[in-house]
Amino acid sequence: MLDRKLLDFLKAYKNSSITLGKLEQFCPGSTTYEDFAAAVLSLEEQGVLKKIDSSGENYKDPSLANKYAIKKDALKLHHQQIKQLQLTVHPLISLDRYYKLSEKEWEKDYKYIKKIDAYLKNKGVPQLPVSMPQRSYELVADEKWLEAGGTKVLERLGVGEQLKIEQTPDPLMLAVAPKRFTSLSHLHLVVENKTTYYALADILCETAFTSLIYGQGWKASANLAYLPKQLNLPGCEHIIYYFGDLDAEGIRIWWYINEKIKTTPAVAFYRALLTKQAKYGKQTQRPDRRALAQFSAYFSRDAGQQLSNLLAEGRYYPQEALSKDELQEIWRNSAWTTS
Hints:
Elements: H1 2-12, E1 17-19, H2 20-26, H3 33-45, E2 49-51, E3 67-70, H4 72-75, H5 77-86, H6 103-123, E4 130-131, H7 132-140, H8 146-157, E5 165-166, E6 173-176, E7 185-191, H9 194-201, E8 211-214, H10 220-223, H11 227-230, E9 237-243, H12 248-260, E10 263-265, H13 267-273, E11 279-280, H14 289-296, H15 301-312, E12 315-316, H16 324-333
Parallel strand pairs: 4-5, 7-8, 7-9, 9-10
Antiparallel strand pairs: 1-3, 2-3, 6-8, 11-12
Helix pairs in contact: 1-3, 12-14
């Protein structure tokens, strides 16, 4: 419809007022005056255009003002929709966040908001947690919707916790030493990179460790808490060590994991890295002060200062700076606490 086309034009129009002639220029050449006038009057009724009386009128039938003020706030028509819908949705649903988002985001989420509203009204707040795919199917008839980004909609609506979605992260990729399963205390080493994982996997049974875990960067932060369950070793003591790249990102990964589950830097590996020649190439990374302070506390003052200086200069140590032989020697012969 013409009024919709004019509305889209006005949204992109930067000035706060517009002449009638400018509006006419935007219309297709085949547009009749009657259709044009009806579209302009419709925008007046919606509060988008307000005639400027001092500009005079064109005295046609119907008569239009020669100039209009553009009410920018009224162009955000989805705000009116948000306000109206808020009056009818389930009390747990809040639409406030959508006032700060674009109309495009509102239109994209609208059908899902309606479905979530219908679920809460028809079935109420769930009493028991279920897996993400199951809840996703119950909400929108698509078991992959939540995993594909639908959780963001739940967060916007403020109903994520109330819908009781059981988090089921991917299983950890790990190697195990079965002979240690009878112990009541277990050591675990998480390594950030695949190369280091395979360099150490061959000698796992020669160490005091029950498992070697491939952390896959940030991925370990989501699933490491499930380690005792995955190993079927509940009720035991689990001591976790972490070894990643010695750069701002690697330290931040360790810190984030440690916030969720107690994890100790594998200091023996890091000390060996600090004896090597650091590389340049991480100038864009910025150390997290909290993470760096907590990480450095495991080292001597001199080593902590060395680390702080090299990060400030954009230098770093990849795990691969240690050879396979060096990695294995350190893991076999370093003193690892078991309590």
